[in-house]
Design brief:
Length: 93
């Protein structure tokens, strides 16, 4: 996954124009990618716009909800579930 592209898109979504938060956002991106690979067994493809936008939305949510105890939004849960199901179908097929 192209972390620079993800970072640029996350910053656009958040309306961030400076580089002040780049280190923090990059750490979130790396953590989310690692979580999806290691815990969920997903391999993200930066050429797949669905994967890219899911990652952008997931990282944005992580950044915005860092001090919140509220769980993952339903739309992200649904999309993550579909990515996992798609991976399982591809493996079986």
């Amino acid at each position: 996954m192209d972390n620079n592209l993800v970072l640029s898109l996350v910053k656009e979504r958040l309306g961030i124009r400076s580089i002040v938060r780049d280190t923090y956002l990059t750490a979130i991106i790396n953590g989310v990618v690692k979580e999806l690979e290691d815990e969920k067994g997903l391999t993200l493809d930066s050429a797949n716009s669905s994967h890219l936008m899911f990652l952008v939305d997931y990282v944005t949510w992580r950044y915005q909800s860092r001090d919140s105890e509220i769980g993952m939004p339903r739309h992200l849960q649904f999309r993550l579930h579909n990515l996992i199901l798609h991976k399982e179908v591809a493996v079986e097929g």
